[in-house]
Amino acid sequence: MNWFTKTFSSTIGRKIIMSITGLFLISFLVVHLVGNLQLFKDDGGAAFNVYSHFMGNNPIIRTMEIVLLLGFLFHIYDAIALTRRNKASRPVGYANNHPQENSTWSSRNMGLLGTVILVFLIIHLWNFFVPARFGGLDPIVVENVEYDNLYIKVVQSFQIWWYVAIYVLAMVALAYHLIHGFQSAFQSLGLTHKKYTPFIQKFGYAFSVIICLGFAIIPLYFFFFFEL
Amino acid sequence: MAGSNPNAKPMDLTLKVWRQKDRNSAGSMVTYPVVGISPDMSFLEMLDVLNEDLLRKGEEPIAFDHDCREGICGMCSLFINGRAHGPERGTTTCQLHMRHFSHGDTITIEPWRAAAFPVHKDLIVDRSAFDRIQQAGGYISVNTGGVPDANEIPIPKSIADKAFDAATCIGCGACVAACKNASAMLFVSAKVSQMAMLPQGKTERKTRAENMVAQMDIEGFGACSNTGACAAECPVGISLENIAMLNREYLGARLTSENLA
Q: Looking at the record's lineage, which domain of life comes first (chain A) (predicted)?
């Protein structure tokens, strides 16, 4: 191994990869939520369908899609590598242990929360991304141009109660994952300072709650307030 | 007993203690009753009482680590009722007093659990992994010669205080014991940042961070999940800021050192 691979396969190196990919994935959440807000526009889905067409065809977005996939893969791969090592570091556990006295539940269960998010992600991609990219959506004409009607797929999906429940539960898991992960990423990168760290911690908490609430409102809105 | 509380009533307790003959034997939790324990006793004195009983009965006494019994040497350990050094914050087991327990309590006592800290006997674990990490770079090289003047090198008070705070680490291993990953990051970070902050430590700054982290990984400690359990259980209050500093030191060293390995 050369110095580079050795650095990033050390325990600290892997945590640095986790932080960088984690913060990158967080930035993706912002873009995704802002785009999704067009679902609320009362135009029969025209704005959303035009937007999703742009996202599926713009070369810069398509390139970033590959970077995003790599971000997920590195984040997941290092999470597995770290978890395996961490489990092996304590082969015999305690008969009596009270970790709740010294740490938060989410900080101790990032792997579990991440797994819930991964399962959700597979369901989510299968339902929306796969038909949008590989075909299977109905066509719709907006201003004499034909688009895939991803909007109607969204609306129909969120009429199913258990589908909405999966989304809301996944967003709760994501919120807890981010509440620990956001500030933890800065700690892993060594970016702490008494002038900035209190703000980063407060901002990270608010960010996690607001972003996940924003995502969770979409299925709830279409389930409770939208008539097909 | 001078200074003892005349109103303190002796306590009867039930102890569940990890017994293990040696490194290669399987161990188990064994239950022992102890009677007439004074609330003024330290936790280790309570174990001394139990061991006297065991010796009188011709049984093997419980092996546990201890030395100064003043909370400064870092020799005592013990995972008591699910907490490193017991339920009180900012204290070592030797400074934990029986007044924090009540008559009739059941107390579980286990050794530190970590692959890098193999159980030597009963409650004693082998913490020589910490020694090897220290030997990998937890020092400064100083030439012998004339005695330098005191305060010859100016160091800002705030930096000196921070370095001193890091230097108060007694190397007991409670951070490893409390961490869900059995990570040694708090220990290593205290040792690295203590010297990285001071001018005397700058010469070996990069090799220190590189070599100590490499040794930490070789010893089989886990990675840091930033749960903060280590700092919460640390008897001397080593801060998580040190871990952030170690992350900075390590990344900086790896990216800029002359070491291509």
A: Bacteria
- Could you tell me if residue B29 is inside a domain? yes
B61 and B134 co-located in one domain: no
Residue B261 lies in a domain: no
Q: Are residues B162 and B226 in the same domain?
A: yes
Residue B3 has pLDDT above 90, yes or no: no
Q: Domains in chain B: how many in total? A: 2
Whether the pLDDT of residue B149 is over 70: the answer is: yes
Least CB–CB distance from B225: residue in A91, A98, A110: A110
Residue B243 has pLDDT above 50, yes or no: yes
A90 with B261: Cβ contact below 8 A: no
Q: Taking the C-alpha atoms of A172, A177, A180 and A181 in order, what is their torsion angle to the nearest 10 degrees?
A: -140
Amino acid, res. B36:
G
Task: Confirm or reject contact between A99 and chain B (CB < 8 A).
Answer: yes
Dump pLDDT digits (tens) for B99-145.
Answer: 999 999 999 999 999 999 999 999 999 999 999 999 999 999 988 88
Question: Which of A102, A107, A182, A193 to mutate against chain B (most B CBs within 10 Å)?
Answer: A102
The residue count for chain B: 261
Judgement on whether residues B95 and B175 belong to the same structural domain of the protein = no
B229 contacts A102? CB cut-off 8 A: yes
Distance CA B62, CA B43 (A): 13
Q: What is the CATH number of the domain that holds B163?
A: 1.10.1060.10
Pairing of strands B11-19, B79-80: unpaired
User: Residue A5 and residue B246: Cα distance in Å, rounded?
Assistant: 19
**Burial class of A59 by CB neighbour count within 10 A (0 to 12, 13 to 18, 19+):** exposed
Q: What is the ipTM of this complex?
A: 0.94
Pair (B22, B78) in one structural domain: yes
Range of the domain at B25: 11-120
Question: pLDDT tens, B50-94?
Answer: 999 999 999 999 999 999 999 999 999 999 999 999 999 999 999
**Inter-chain CB proximity B240 and A187 less than 8 Å:** yes
Do B28 and B113 fall within a single domain? yes
Residue B241 forms part of a structural domain: yes
Q: Does residue B2 register a pLDDT over 80? A: no
